[in-house]
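User: structure tokens for this one?
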Amino acid sequence: MNPSSREIVTTGAEKRQLAVASASLGPWRPAAVVGALGGGVSLALHLVQGHFGLGILSGSLSIAALLFFCVGGAGAVLGYSAHGKAGKDRRIRRWARRHPWRVAAVPAAAMFVTDMVLRQVLTSEGFFGSVWTGLWHGAVVAAVVGGIGAVSAARK
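Assistant:
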């Protein structure tokens, strides 16, 4: 085995820290722009139809968050940042390419919490309904980010 291809055995806590660190290196500013545009379009479509309420606002914010976490997480797994590809943190980015599903868990968990809080604050939806919706929105983010990372890793 090549010494450069060996991976240091890490504890569960270290793996979680690496996943958070690699996810934080994503292109979060462009992701915010994409999320804002998607949420704005969703809100505009509802307004054109003559509907308005906190439920519609909650849905639009949820779409914005979904796009934000998908774009930012996918960029992190692919090794992109707001400042271009690669950067100073090559080892963390390499770890992210080898472990796309662990990195995908970070934006997925953030999506779950964000969506659940949005629905609890802005709608009259029950707690378990909010948890269920947050879980499947988090699962969508995990599938998109992890899938993109897995396909990208397989191609290299």
